[in-house]
Amino acid sequence: MFRKVYVGRQFLDAVKASKKVFASTKASNRIQEFREKLNTTSNDILIDSFGRHHTYLRISVTERCNLRCMYCMPAEGVKLTPKDGILTTEEIIKLASLFIKEGIRKIRLTGGEPTVRKDIVDIVAHLKSFANLEEIAITTNGLTLTRQLPALQRAGLDNLNISLDTLKEDRFEQFTRRKGWAKVMASIDLAVQLNYNPVKVNCVVMRGFNDDELIDFVNMTKECPLDIRFIEYMPFDGNKWNENKMVSFDEMKKIIRQSYPNFQALPNKPNDTSKAYKVPGFVGQVGFITSMTHNFCSSCNRLRITADGNLKVCLFEGESEVSLRDALRSGASEEDLKDIIRKAVRGKKKQHAVNRKEQLYYKTRLQYEEHETGKANMVDVGWKNESKRVAVARGEIHVGPVITKLIAENNVKKGDVLSIAQLAEITAEVRCTGKTGVEMEALTAVSVAGLTIYDMCKHAATTHAMKITNIELVSKTGGTKGDYLKK
């Protein structure tokens, strides 16, 4: 049996090279781009450890809602934060001002239902006064929008999304546990009349509830400047979620193409969450928000502030929230707030929790299984046939601002770190012919690669400034249990 470890040609070549060679090595275009990104990151509080630049802030202005949509809230409602725990208008504007100063260019007001907040027009007007803010948007259920939209438009509202999950009035009442379908339809009509183009209509698609209305929604785009956005059903506490209710992006496209075979994809901007499609000849278009099956984490540029003032760097990462409200009310300075924001953003994970599998698969030559007594027992693997086996593992190493600057400037004493391995994803591959798998060797190899980077940078590190994380198996082939590929 032979075992050979591959940790990438760049890694092996660089380890053998002298410091002089390190210093003179010409970086590839990709490495140079990464250096430039690191240079920017050192001072930018809105860039995370994966280089994602956050320019879009969603601010929830209230927890209250005048509907009880069954995928969003239990029929009895939820326990609300006391009024004095909700951000005041002054606090919203102060936080928005700070984020805009640091690079936020789009703000969306959400809820709950934002239009139930009495000062919603004033909030929009205040935000519009910031010269560097390029877009103000709102997401609403449209129930009372016909009364408020003209004033919101005068205040400076640039765009709006209206939530509507069905074109059938009785089904609307079943979904929302309230009346009001005609009012929502009237709000969509008014938005079109006021020249909002496009008017975005959000529709959560649920199997057995409204998946039979996909074509009806698409037909709405024939003569109106609408952007119908079909959203994959997502899990939230309280909606009694199960995956059987989700209709996938691919399945929705297949259904639509049965009626419109020429249904075609449109170009998307880098940070778009909606995948744009269109029936040729129709005025409007269709989009798909595919959080469950085709996540857009790699290009995510969004941050959220909850109604009670928590900064939420990812919709699905509740444990990472930090309270900006408490910091404000305790007299935190602008620099204090920036430091809180910077730390939260740098802690944002590469991928959201719904799609990230927190499992580590491993196997060694010493195999164990649980005996009926509950004790671990060694297993004989001598009976197994030899086969070709490959395992690929990866890991991440996170560094602080001092080391980031040294790496970006190629001033690390022990050599050119980026020529050894990209910090965001060090990969190791192990191949063998034998009776047992090589997952453990791959995981060990990537650990050694990470430790090599750690050793190169430790002279400039303060306590806890560096950490190696997310060492995991990416794929394996061969063996009795078949192939594995991490999704």
Automatic annotation (TrEMBL):
<dbReference type="InterPro" id="IPR007197">
    <property type="entry name" value="rSAM"/>
</dbReference>
<keyword id="KW-0342">GTP-binding</keyword>
<comment type="function">
    <text>Isoform MOCS1A and isoform MOCS1B probably form a complex that catalyzes the conversion of 5'-GTP to cyclic pyranopterin monophosphate (cPMP). MOCS1A catalyzes the cyclization of GTP to (8S)-3',8-cyclo-7,8-dihydroguanosine 5'-triphosphate and MOCS1B catalyzes the subsequent conversion of (8S)-3',8-cyclo-7,8-dihydroguanosine 5'-triphosphate to cPMP.</text>
</comment>
<comment type="similarity">
    <text>In the C-terminal section; belongs to the MoaC family.</text>
</comment>
<keyword id="KW-0411">Iron-sulfur</keyword>
<dbReference type="GO" id="GO:0005525">
    <property type="term" value="F:GTP binding"/>
</dbReference>
<keyword id="KW-0501">Molybdenum cofactor biosynthesis</keyword>
<dbReference type="InterPro" id="IPR058240">
    <property type="entry name" value="rSAM_sf"/>
</dbReference>
<keyword id="KW-0408">Iron</keyword>
<keyword id="KW-0479">Metal-binding</keyword>
<dbReference type="InterPro" id="IPR002820">
    <property type="entry name" value="Mopterin_CF_biosynth-C_dom"/>
</dbReference>
<dbReference type="InterPro" id="IPR006638">
    <property type="entry name" value="Elp3/MiaA/NifB-like_rSAM"/>
</dbReference>
<dbReference type="InterPro" id="IPR000385">
    <property type="entry name" value="MoaA_NifB_PqqE_Fe-S-bd_CS"/>
</dbReference>
<dbReference type="InterPro" id="IPR013785">
    <property type="entry name" value="Aldolase_TIM"/>
</dbReference>
<keyword id="KW-0547">Nucleotide-binding</keyword>
<comment type="subunit">
    <text>Isoform MOCS1A and isoform MOCS1B probably form a heterooligomer.</text>
</comment>
<feature type="domain" description="Radical SAM core">
    <location>
        <begin position="49"/>
        <end position="262"/>
    </location>
</feature>
<keyword id="KW-0004">4Fe-4S</keyword>
<dbReference type="Pfam" id="PF06463">
    <property type="entry name" value="Mob_synth_C"/>
</dbReference>
<keyword id="KW-0456">Lyase</keyword>
<dbReference type="InterPro" id="IPR010505">
    <property type="entry name" value="MoaA_twitch"/>
</dbReference>
<dbReference type="InterPro" id="IPR036522">
    <property type="entry name" value="MoaC_sf"/>
</dbReference>
<comment type="similarity">
    <text>In the N-terminal section; belongs to the radical SAM superfamily. MoaA family.</text>
</comment>
<dbReference type="Pfam" id="PF04055">
    <property type="entry name" value="Radical_SAM"/>
</dbReference>
<dbReference type="GO" id="GO:0061798">
    <property type="term" value="F:GTP 3',8'-cyclase activity"/>
</dbReference>
<dbReference type="GO" id="GO:0006777">
    <property type="term" value="P:Mo-molybdopterin cofactor biosynthetic process"/>
</dbReference>
<dbReference type="GO" id="GO:0051539">
    <property type="term" value="F:4 iron, 4 sulfur cluster binding"/>
</dbReference>
<comment type="pathway">
    <text>Cofactor biosynthesis; molybdopterin biosynthesis.</text>
</comment>
<dbReference type="InterPro" id="IPR013483">
    <property type="entry name" value="MoaA"/>
</dbReference>
<protein>
    <recommendedName>
        <fullName>Molybdenum cofactor biosynthesis protein 1</fullName>
        <ecNumber>4.1.99.22</ecNumber>
        <ecNumber>4.6.1.17</ecNumber>
    </recommendedName>
</protein>
<keyword id="KW-0949">S-adenosyl-L-methionine</keyword>
<dbReference type="InterPro" id="IPR040064">
    <property type="entry name" value="MoaA-like"/>
</dbReference>
<dbReference type="Pfam" id="PF01967">
    <property type="entry name" value="MoaC"/>
</dbReference>
<dbReference type="GO" id="GO:0046872">
    <property type="term" value="F:metal ion binding"/>
</dbReference>
<dbReference type="InterPro" id="IPR050105">
    <property type="entry name" value="MoCo_biosynth_MoaA/MoaC"/>
</dbReference>
<dbReference type="GO" id="GO:0061799">
    <property type="term" value="F:cyclic pyranopterin monophosphate synthase activity"/>
</dbReference>
